């Protein structure tokens, strides 16, 4: 009888561990879909670039994208990374004519 109780307690503990693991997996999946995606029009407005420039960024692999039914989508985090990676940090003093 004692062995049966021990086995049941061990099984209950295993079930708790599986439940915790499933909960973690569920949260991880939800976090992946929380990533904000924007379409090409929003990217062009945010970066002040043309459609052709955006196409060039896609073509040369500079900006990753997802394509669904002919429409392109971009992760905001990829745009932020692109800006950070190309940030020079140099501040050039402009004369009164903006040069």
SSE diagram, text form:
Elements: H1 2-33, E1 37-39, H2 40-47, H3 51-59, E2 66-68, E3 71-75, H4 76-85
Antiparallel strand pairs: 1-3, 2-3
Brief overview:
This protein is mostly helical. Helices cover 60% and strands 11% of the residues. It has 2 domains: 1-34; 37-85.
Describe it:
This protein has 99 residues and is mostly helical. It has 2 domains: 34 residues; 49 residues. A 3-stranded antiparallel beta sheet has the order 1-3-2. 3% of the residues are buried. The mean pLDDT is 86.
Helix content: 55-70%
Q: What does the radius of gyration come to? A: 25 Å
- Total strands: the figure is 3
Computed structural class? mainly alpha
Sheet with most strands? 3 strands, antiparallel
Spatial gap, N to C terminus: 89 Å
Give the helix tally.
Answer: 4
Compute the number of structural domains: 2
* Average of pLDDT: 86
**Order of strands across the widest beta sheet?**
1-3-2
Low-confidence stretches: none
Please state the overall shape, judged from the principal axes of the Cα atoms. Answer: elongated
Key structural traits:
three-stranded antiparallel sheet, mainly alpha, 99 residues, 11% strand, single chain, 2 domains, elongated
